[in-house]
Each structure stands twice: as C-alpha cells, then as structure tokens.
Amino acid sequence: MSGAATTELDGCVVHPDLEQERKKCSFKILDFTYALYGPENFAILTKLRTALSRNPAFDLRYLWAIDGSTQQYVRACWLAEEVVKVIRQLKLIDQDAAIGPLQVLAGEDMFVMLHLTMFLPTLKNMCDDEQARYWVPLAEDFRIIGTYCQTELAHGSNVAGLETTADFDEKTDEWVLNTPSLQATKWWPGGLGKSCTHCVCMARLRIHNKDYGVHPFILQVRDLNTHESLPGITLFHLGKKLGYNSMDNGGAQFRNVRIPRRNLLMRYCHVDRQGNYRTLGNKKMMYGTMTFTRKQIIMAAGPHLAKSAVIAIRYSAVRRQFPIKMRDSGNQENGNNAEAQVLDYSTQQLTLFPILAASVAYTMTGIWMDAFYNTFIEEAKKGDFSKLEEIHAVTSCLKATITLAVADGIEKCRKACGGHGYLLASGIPIQFVNFVPVATYEGDRVVLSLQTARVLMKIVQRKMMNKSPNPAMMGSTLEYIWNFDPFEDQHAFTVDDGIWSDPERILEAFKKRACVLVYKAAQQFASETSNGATVMEAMDVLKVEFTRLTVAHAHVLILRLFLEGINRLEPSAIRDVWVDLWFCLALAWCDEYFGDFVITRAFGPDHHDGIMVALKAILRKIRPNAVAIADAFWIPDQLLNSALGRYDGRVYEALLNSTKLEPLNRTDVPPGYLEHIQYILHPDRRKRASPLHCKL
Amino acid sequence: MSGAATTELDGCVVHPDLEQERKKCSFKILDFTYALYGPENFAILTKLRTALSRNPAFDLRYLWAIDGSTQQYVRACWLAEEVVKVIRQLKLIDQDAAIGPLQVLAGEDMFVMLHLTMFLPTLKNMCDDEQARYWVPLAEDFRIIGTYCQTELAHGSNVAGLETTADFDEKTDEWVLNTPSLQATKWWPGGLGKSCTHCVCMARLRIHNKDYGVHPFILQVRDLNTHESLPGITLFHLGKKLGYNSMDNGGAQFRNVRIPRRNLLMRYCHVDRQGNYRTLGNKKMMYGTMTFTRKQIIMAAGPHLAKSAVIAIRYSAVRRQFPIKMRDSGNQENGNNAEAQVLDYSTQQLTLFPILAASVAYTMTGIWMDAFYNTFIEEAKKGDFSKLEEIHAVTSCLKATITLAVADGIEKCRKACGGHGYLLASGIPIQFVNFVPVATYEGDRVVLSLQTARVLMKIVQRKMMNKSPNPAMMGSTLEYIWNFDPFEDQHAFTVDDGIWSDPERILEAFKKRACVLVYKAAQQFASETSNGATVMEAMDVLKVEFTRLTVAHAHVLILRLFLEGINRLEPSAIRDVWVDLWFCLALAWCDEYFGDFVITRAFGPDHHDGIMVALKAILRKIRPNAVAIADAFWIPDQLLNSALGRYDGRVYEALLNSTKLEPLNRTDVPPGYLEHIQYILHPDRRKRASPLHCKL
C-alpha cells in the first residue's frame, strides 16, 4: 500500500522512508562515526573495509544457502585462508589493534581467529625468551596453527580441578601426557577438532609423583605434512552447536604422548634436566590469557550489538503496521490511510533506543578497556603489578554484565523485527546464536561475579577495619566504593524533577545503588561467617547478591566512561545526540532495575513516574535521529548480511530474493513427496509401491 | 574424580548421584504425575507413549547428525507419515484432547501439525453445514493436506490491511484470486512451501468492485496426483530460519486463480449466485481460529518448558564443580575433596527452581484454559456469547506472558548447563529455537497487551461512570479488577513477616499490583485524551504500561489457578511439594518484579529483604525433591533428546557418543584441509597445485 516505489526488484533506489529519515537528522553521520571510534580505530576500519569489501569470501549471505555443517566448515576454511591473506598483505600480524576489528568485520569465527586471539598471545605471554624466539615466528607466519586447550569434559570453571597429566620422564627428558579418565577428555577448544596443528595444552605437571598443579605445554597434534593426527592423540569434532558452527570445537584424548621437557612454557616457572621445579616472577600472570581474552570480548561486544540494532532500526523505519496518525510521525506527508512506521510506536522505541544507546556505550567502554589493559601490561613489564586487582575486577564485571546484555539485546532486536526476524535472511539469528556462547565461555556471570565481589568487598572490609585505603585504589574505578559513607547516607537520595536532566546526579544514584549493594553484601557476609558458616558457604549464600552488585558496579563504570566521552567533545550536534543517548540508557536502566534503586534508597517508590516521563520524552527526542545513529556505526551491507537491515531499505525485494538461495526451492515437487507425503495422501500407493522408504 | 562408576560406555546403570536424589525425595513420583495431568490426560499420555516409544521416527537424536535442511525436511516428511499412521491406528482424529499432547511428544513441528491444529479446526468453524460435509472428511482422512494462509510479506498483525484480492466473477460464478503487489505475497504459512495441497486463504472479498473486507476461502494449491503446483500459483519455501526447520514455511503469489463461489467459507456470511452478500451469526467468531490457536499454545507451553527444566535439573545434580562442602548437600557422604553438585549452588537453585515451579503452574493453567475454552464453545453453539470478552482477554494475556516467559526460561536452562548447554546434543538449543517463534506468531506481546488492556480498562471506565457491573464479569477471572477500590486502598499493603507463609495474602499483593497498574493506566489514558490526544495516540503512549499490566494480570491468573489446584488436593506429600513450588514461583516473581510492587504500594522498599530470606529458604526446601519433581513430568528419554538430561544421568558417556553422529568425524583429515588449510600452512603449495579451490 505504501510502497509503489519499491516494487522493482534489484533496484538500487533507496526506500523513500529511509531517504526521509536521513534528511531530517540533526548531525553529520560520518562525524559521529569518527568521534565514536577515534582516529586510530577509524583509520584501521577504513583500511579493513577496503580490503574486505570486494572479497566474496566475506559475503555472509552464503549462510542462507548452506546445506549442512560439512559445507559450512569447508566454507569457514576458505574464509580462514582469505583472512590469513589479508593479514599477510596488510602486515597486521603484530598489530593487536587490528585483529579485533578484523574479527568483527569477518563476521564469522573460525579456527584462525582463535589462533590469533588465544594461541599467539599465550605463546607471547608464557614462553621464555628462547622459547618465544622459536615458537612465535612459526605462529605469526601461520606455519603452525594453534589453539588453547584447557577445558575438560567434566572440568570447566574450576581450572584447579583439571585432570590431564604431564609426567616428567627424567630418563628421556620428556613429558608424558595422558587422559586418565573419560571426564578428563579435553573438550571445547576451538579448532582442535579438525583444523589445528598445535595447541597450548593445560595439564597437571608431575615430577617424581609430586603434583605441581596445572601448567601450559605446547603440543603438536597433527602432522605438518599430511595433517593426520599424531600417534597417541585422538581428536574429534564435538558435533553441532546452537550456532558458531563454522568453528570446529573439538575434543582430545592422550595416551602416553611424549613431548620434550622444553615444551613446558617456562616464562613463569622452570624445570631443569634433573626435574627441579622453581617458579619465576608473578605467578598470577600465568592466567593472563584469560584476562586478555575477556578484554577482547569486551572490546567486540558493542560492535556486535550494533549490528542487530542497525538491522532492527532500519527495518522499523520501513515496516508499516496499522493506520494510525501519530503526532511525532517521521513521515508527516502520509495520508490518514497509510500505516504508521513501526519505529513510531512507543514500545518499539523503548525496546530499540536503549539498545542503540548501549551499542554506543559498550563500544566506548571497549575502547577504554583496551587502553587500560595496555597500560597495565606496560606497567607489569616494568614489574609494577599494582593494578592487578583492579584489572581483574574490571574485566570480570564488564565481561559478565555486557555479554549477557548483548545476547539479550540481540534477541530483543530479533523479536522487534516480528516474524521476519526469525528468518536467517534477517541477519539477526546468526548474530544471536554466534554471540550467545560468549556469555558462558571465559567465565560465566556467577563465576565472574564472585571475582568482582571479592575485590569490592575487600575495600569495604578494609574500611570497616579503619585501615587506610590501598594507594592503588585511589583515583581508580573502585574509589567511589571507598568514598561512600554507609552511615551518613541512610536516607533516600534527594530526588526532585531536576535530577532527570542532570547526568551527574543520575550517576550519583547509580553509585549509591552499587555502594549500598556492596556494603549490604559485606554486612551479610560478615553475619553469615560470624554465625558459623565457612567462607565458602557464606560466599554461596550471597552469590545471588553478588551477581546483582556486579551489574550495578558495571553500570556505574559504563555510564561514567560514556559521560567522560561526552565531556571530551566540544559543544556540537554530535555531543547533543550523545547526551540524549546517555539519558536514554541511564533512564532505561533506572526503569529496568527500579527495584534495586528503591531497595538501596537511591530512589523512592514515587520516582518511577518521573523516570517514565523523562524516558518517553528522550525516546521522542531520539526518534528523528535514530536511523542516522544506526548508519553512524558504519557497517557495510555485505557484513550486516541482512535482508531487513540493508542501507537502501528495500527489504521485501531482498526477502523474496533470499528464497532463491534455498536448496529446497530447486524443484517444485520436493524430495519428501515421493518418499513420504504421497503415502499420507494415498496410503494405497504404499501397498503397490516398490520400497522407496528411506530411513535417515 | 567423582565418577569411577560412570566410566563404562553404553551401560544402563543409573549414576549414583541421581539414584541418591531419587531415594531421598518426599513423595511418590507417579502420584505427582497423575495429580498434575489429571486422569483424562494421564490416560492419553499413557496411550501415546506406548504408541510412540518404539517408533524410530520419533527418536530425535537424528537432529545431532543431520547435515542440511533438505535432509531435515525429508526426515520431517517421514515423521509426518508416522504421525498420521498413529492417528489412524488410534483413531485420534476427532479427539482434540490428544492432538496437543501428540504434538508435544512428537517433539518436532511439521506441516501435518498445522493441518491438525489450524486447517481442520478452521474448516470445522468456518464451513457451513453443506461445506463441512464435503471438506471435513477429506481433511480428517488426510486425502487433502492443508494450512492456514493469512500473513502477507508486508502485513501481519493488522489483518484488515491484507491485500490479496478475491473478485467475484458473476459470469462464471467464481472467485478470481490475485496478488496485487510484491508486499501482498503470502508469507509464512507452515507447509505452504512444499507440503500442502490446500489452504484456507484469507483475501479481500470484492463484488462488483465493492470491498467487503478479509474473508476465508478454501483453495487447492497442488495437484492431488502429481503434487505439482497449480497454474497461476507460485509456491516457494521461505528459506532457513533460526529453528523450526522441519516446517516448510512458505510463500505464494496468485495470478487470476479461479475457484468456485462455494469455496468461500460460508458459516458467518453468504454470497449467492447473483453476488448478494449478507452476514450470518456473530461475526466475531470468524476470528475463532486465532483464539483456538492461542489456547493450544497456552496448553503446550508448560510441557515445553518442562523439557528444558528436566534436562537442566538432572544435569545439575550430576555435574560437579569446585570442592565446596555445603551444609545442605545432596550427597553427605562425599569427602572434602569431592566437588559440589552444581544443584547445591544458590544461584543455580534461584535460576532453575522457579522455572521448575513455572512448568507446573503453566501446565495447570493450560489444562484450565482448555476446559474454559471448551465451555465457551459449548455456550457459543447455544448462542450465548457472554464470555467472549473474557476469553479474548484471558487467551491474549496468557499467550503473551507465558510464551515470553517460556522462551526466556528455556534459554536460562541452557545457560545453566554451562558450555555443554550450547551443544545440540544437550537437547536444549532445539527447544529454544523451535519455541521462540511462538512468542511472535499469533500475536506478539504488544498486540496482545493492547487487547488485554482494552478489556481491563473498560471495567475501570464502567466503574468510574458508576454503572453496575457487567453480569458476565461477576465470578469471572476479571472480577477482582472490579472489586478493587482505588480510593480506600491508597496506602501500602500491610506487610509483616507472616505474609511470606500465607499464599492468600501474597496473592492479594499480586492483585493489588495488577489493579493499581490497570487503574493508573486508565487514569493516564483519560488524561491523555482530555489533553487532546486521539484514542489511537493515547493507546500508543500507554503501550509500555499496557505490556506491564498484562503481565501483572497474567500472574494473578496463573497463581490463582495453581493455588486452586493445590486446594483441590487432600493433605499429602504431593500437596506439600506443590505448596513449596507455589511459594517458589510467587516469591521469585515478587523479587523479579519488585519495582512493580513498590510502585503500586503492594510492598514497601523494606520488604525485599523478607522476600529474599523466604525465597532462599524455600529453595533449600525444594532442593532434596528437585530431581524427583523433574522426573514427575514423565518425559521419556527418547523425546527429551538430550545427552545431559538422560534419566540415568550418564552424561559424559552420552556426550562422547553423540560426537560419533557428527558427519565431520567420518574422516580424520577434514574436507577443508586439501582445499584451504594446507595453503595457509604451506602457501607455496598453492603455486604448484592444480586449482582445487572450490567456492561455495
């Protein structure tokens, strides 16, 4: 009814609704992009977009057509080969800042990504200098392909419980690796099933029957010439997963696999020819790979969420439903009979705009996280580990909170696209199924909340014991917890209507919420232990509270970083839009976690009305800029891989075209008819038919 | 470490942890089952389990092995053939009460399910007597296979906006069907792509250029002998979806397709040979198929959620993580070195037990819904439509609330299984991807919340105008809204510690929350319209509030029905467990929606602590019964389709076995090696190799 101009197929005319949306926005789109990513990342993105955009390997529409996991794996190997070519051509191998964006732009994870983000960094971190000189160039040049092999079938988060053994054989100067039980089968490492030639394998180091705990060993698993698995090593593919099926997550069992003594990675410990064991440096750095990986996850989360947000926003501007004339309609010129743009509906705005705002906020958080991590590493190299606790708390709480929020946000975007969001051609399902495991791997919310809560409660405990603050904490992301006074601050935060237009005061409310939750948990913890509970038991009783205070602390961090980003901008149209987005995100969280805010007396029960009025006003304010903000993420169509999120908005043509890729559309009468359907309709045919019945 | 007894593969010995769990439960498992489903449904289930359990078509493990959508579709056709055989053998075709359970037990939806749950009921409802005599036996005997063809590419929820036309040609006494635009392409009907021979097609009825709006026509789409699509009809498969890929959702375009005048279904309207149009009976019943389908969805939701809950609970009893000695441990005999059962962790309990309780509550709600619907239909047949408004409100609010909660609950169960939950072999991903579209189709939460809010606000408006209550409302599920006094009840609900052990008082708090949200929305609505907003605009401004009051109203209904179920039981061990589950669900909702409760003054900010203390106590009380409650859903292993949720708890053996089904494990060196990986490792080989490079 609304779309006379959109009926030609394969045209390149932009849908008039989107054209209109882009005309009316208040800012220059590419200025937003540049401000968001910053000059360095913007330059990297520009370079990568050019390198990737004409390469058919990076066109993910094949996912709509692919018929089976074998085909998908072969396709992933092709993508891997092309990724390696790009890295070799652009000489990106030691540019850490480029690997993250490359991974997001490639759109699909496969073995070579784990080689880059886990295997290679682990070698760099865990090898001693001599080992590094041998292994790192091999890995950097892809003459070996590796993965990180830690999790076992029955042992995940509890790393200390791993069972795989590495016994020192003094006679041959070798380690002998074994899988002592079914439960000890290595399970999950990406690429281990079929693709990798090597791995860093975590195993219990034992010398003369003494167990020194879990240590990293470099282990070759496949022949470099034939790619066959090596003797004593059984490798297999784990089978199909909810998503992420381009990655061959694998399993392994070892039977008396012998590797040289020097295959133990010896940066943080050393074993000599006689089997003498000694530790070197700060042993906490041995788990550095996990902190690094969490940092990488946090960096990628915002751009991942943005993909789904862009799809849902553009589609909602083109999709029309119910003939309702709206006051703030995007398209005033439509007559009374035209259906309204779905983006004009308040529920759609409340669903999508906070996700759009969060995509911006998480992207900024990720960029800060990267810089903060790099500073920490620089300091650590100089022997300064004072930020170790903070980096642990920050990566844990942000990883736990943001990954869950992103998974949830992607699924909300999918539902916001109605039925069409369920088609792979919408581009969102693949985002969801590929991203959702990130919320589980490298520490799920419970495990990471424990880590976060431990650090935060220590601050309270120190304060309660009237000690002076840890100097490393002053000026850090943790300082506000120390500064909070639980005794003077018992009464409700003074709230008047002015607060809803004052970011600093809203941020204070978020801080109060986080602080009270932390102090309350510390109090309950003390009361549990003084009632005779062991520390372990008290920790378990309070786990629920820990997960909540972790989210509250993460919100403070994210909103603070976003606000700092805004304050760095000169007054401008971009700055105004960022302020709107900040309010949108903060107020949406005030609403969503309102229970938290009243429990902690940051708000009283009456303040919810004010939140909703302010929130609805900000949604209407964002509305005319929504499509332009989506555009500003600067994601090319090819990588969005979406019939609904196309830049030109020609969604219905694209959906119809997408069906041409479906293998079942190759014939009118489907393969199931002759084998089965005809016998439902004509049971008598079964009696006289030859046995065509095929059991799969 | 804990599993010496579990290392034999393919054994049938139950894991000692599960054996222990079953020993210590407080009730007889099958008594629970019988009380839950009721005598009639229990009998049907028994019959169906026997018929299905030895039939390999119903073994869903093939999903772990299947390589591509074509294979999956052929497999679905086989399943369909077997379902039809069961229906024919057990003569179930006119036993509506058996079709729902059959659908749940079959585990996979495919075209024949839509034939049973949408096509056939529509024929029964929409045909006049003569038409019914012709069409119903054909459909009941599967001599035709049909679907319900309504949604178009650009038109979903707004049925009145459908564009497909059916023009009356008086000369030939025929309707001429056309697809006037790309946007009018029929899109989504299950089975329409490849499987169906017929459909009920919704199209604009036009006579002599006058448009009478959307009406149902029966339309043959494929040849009954060859299965080829008929002239003028273009049929196609929509392509791959997030899940539900055994169903061939399809699209259709019509060009001058001619069908006899009597193919208009004429129960509620009539068109004669001269083209005179008249309506018959209550036209609201024309949309009866949608109400019926929502009822069916509500009935199936509890059993669907139960599948994932059972898997997560059993796995959490077998999975061990971190060596923590717990006070309330399920396995006292373990030494200090053994890792704890994950089910002992408070976060795991808080995640899973409310889902277990909700599975029970939704199952009971579904059984009530079915009975209530059947009563309504009986009355309607006698011309009594007084419950029409209530049935509309009830089906709308329960469908919206429960489907979202179930989709969310399934995903929570999956995450609660850690990494392994991500494997298809865990059985949960297929539950999630297959169930999640149910939250969108047949009305999403926004559309249905509008329907619910309209009915609820009418009650308030009537009351505010000092009218007497509608007699049909008295004694109904809506009466409590009428009985609420917004003026006398301004102050906080009196809460003391006694409330947490008194279901009636907790239910009062839920009622207060719902009522205040409804009255507040009605007030805001009146204020918007008196400020000059149109009804449509005011509706949109309040949509956010509508979605929330709909959930609140649904919670009252669900908790009330569950409580009535409890009160029907004699004092017994089962009754005690049900009471625990009731508290668990109610308190978990009090916590989750605490913001709602304080905003509406049902609780004050101080009451959250009491909720958490009571909730944690009830979780510990449920803990020893958790596995037995899961067992009581009486879902056979074959239909759970889960390596993690097996009755015998031998999860690690089952996981390892599941990898044998993966096609990529047929060879050691994978197909991607020769084509791509070797050139990453040895780029020089590319130069001298023959062109093996294969682009998909």
Describe the structure.
Chains A, B: This is Acyl-coenzyme A oxidase. Chains A, B: Keywords: FAD, Fatty acid metabolism, Flavoprotein, Lipid metabolism, Oxidoreductase, Peroxisome. Chains A, B: One of its GO terms (molecular function) is FAD binding. Chains A, B: Residues 31-145 form the Acyl-coenzyme A oxidase N-terminal domain. The structure is a homodimer of 696-residue chains. Among the domains of chain A are: 143-287, Beta Barrel (Butyryl-CoA Dehydrogenase, subunit A, domain 2), CATH 2.40.110; 291-321 and 340-631, Up-down Bundle (Butyryl-CoA Dehydrogenase, subunit A, domain 3). The first copy, chain A, contains 24 helices and eleven strands. Chain A has helices spanning 16-23, 29-53, 62-65, 69-90, 96-106, 111-126, 129-140, 288-318, 346-381, 388-416, 428-435, 445-464, 479-483, 503-530, 535-541, 543-568, 573-592, 594-599, 607-622, 626-632, 637-640, 651-658, 671-681, 683-688; strands spanning 146-149, 165-169, 174-178, 186-187, 198-207, 210-220, 233-237, 250-254, 257-260, 269-271, 277-279. In chain A, the strands form three sheets. In chain A, strands 1, 2, 3, 5, 6 and 9 form a six-stranded mixed β-sheet that branches. A three-stranded antiparallel β-sheet of chain A has the order 4-8-7, with no helix packed on it. The longest helix of chain A is centred in the middle third of the chain and has 36 residues, at 346-381. Chain A is globular and about 90 Å long. Chain A starts with 15 loop residues before the first helix and ends in an 8-residue tail after the last helix. The model of chain A is unreliable at 1-11, 328-336 and 690-696 (pLDDT under 50).
